[in-house]
Each structure stands twice: as C-alpha cells, then as structure tokens.
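How a chain folds remains the central question behind the approach discussed here. No coordinates are needed to read the tokens, only the vocabulary itself. For completeness, the protein is quoted in full, as a sequence line and a line of structure tokens:
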Amino acid sequence: MTELATTEPAAIEQQAAPITPTAGTTALMAWAQEADLAYQMAQKLANTSFVPATMRGKPGEITAAILAGAELGLKPMAALKSIDIIQGVYALRAHALRAVVQNQGHEIELVESRPDYCKMRGRRSGAAEWQTVEWTIQRAGQMKLTEKAEWKKQPQTMLVARATGEICRLIASDALHGMPYVAEELEGTVHAEVVPQAAPLSIAAVTGPSVMPVAPAPADTEYAVTRDDEGTPEWEEVEGSTDWPAVSQPGGEA
C-alpha cells in the first residue's frame, strides 16, 4: 500500500507534463494567428469596391487571397488587386506574376511585341544564360484561343500574358508557391473576370411550343392624341416616335 501511494503521484505528474512545441507547431500557431487577423480584416473589406467581384461578400475567400499573397511577398491590398479566382482556381494577373518573379531578383525582358507575335526572355538571379519563349497568333490559333472574345479584342496583350506565364514558370517556378498560372491563361476570362457560362438549352426548350408574352389589359382611361404632321420637320418626327432603334448590348449585335 505504501509503495502504491508513493508511485501514483509521480505517474500523474509525468502525464501532466507540458509538451514542448516543435519548430513546426510554433510556425503553425503563428500562421493561425496571422490567419485570424486576416479574417478580421477580410470581414471589414468584404463589401467594399476594393475587393474583386469574385470575392466580394466572401471573407473566407478574401482571407485565403491575403494569406496566399503574403507567401508571395504581396501586401494585403496588393494581393486583392492581383489575385483572381477563375473557375475555382486562384491565379495571379500577368503583371503581378512578373512583379513577384522580379522581386526575387530574377530578370524578365519583353524583347518584341506585336498583335501577331511576342518574344520574351528571362534568366534566374546569378545565371548567365537567358531563356527565351515565343508566342505567335498561329500557336494561339492551334489551341483555339483566338476564338475567345478577349483574344479578338486585344491579341497583343493576351500574347504577352501567355509569354509571361511561360517564362516565369521556366526560370522561377520556386518563386510562385503553387500559383504558377496567370489569370489570362485560364478559361473564361475577360479582363481577369469570370465570364458566366450560359445554361444549356434543353430539348423541350428548343422543340416545345413558344410561349408568347401576354399583353397587359388596357387601362380604362381613354386617350385622345391629336397630331398635325404637315410641316413637321423630320427630326421632330424621329424624336417623337416610340419606334426606337434596338439598343446595342455589351458583347452582342445591335
């Protein structure tokens, strides 16, 4: 009985001994504190115009963008201006990707840029050899990129974006920390914004009878319109007409 009484407190004391944190757990705890502060910041910024439309009202997404930007050396506001979510994938805009790589001491030069051709070169910090990439409109056409609206509007800019992504991955993939693509490279982007995909038409919608809109019942009020067209200038007739021309929609035909 005496032996049990002397050994039990020692065993309890041994079990209650604190665990010494390792370097990994210490770093994780510091990161968790940083994430908590970033989330508090994100809640205040969530509904402001400084947040991209794809993240607006989503503090969790904003927090992830801020933390990802911090790993790349970007301050919070710079990260929000530089990172987009394209089809669920985080991507840097071309200018931001170049900035990250150049900030690491690597060199990137735009050698030549035309609407049908782009040549860019780069080399790692301390290296003697330059690496070169070329993008042509023919190459883009083979990948069916030129069928997209943004390529039709500004092919020169899109060629530069493609060359940027390729040269940065080639010379400094370690500087990109899992974010190697530029937003302009990913599908469905226009000015680095997600283009909503149109819902597919069903067979019933195509073959079924068309539903004509029902005109509203006429009001009980009687209207009397008197007009004397004689001598009315042509511009007054157009101005008074209700037969307006069709309004051109963004991205569509008039």
Q: What stands out?
A: The beta strands are 83-86, 89-92, 107-114, 117-123, 131-136, 189-190, 193-194.
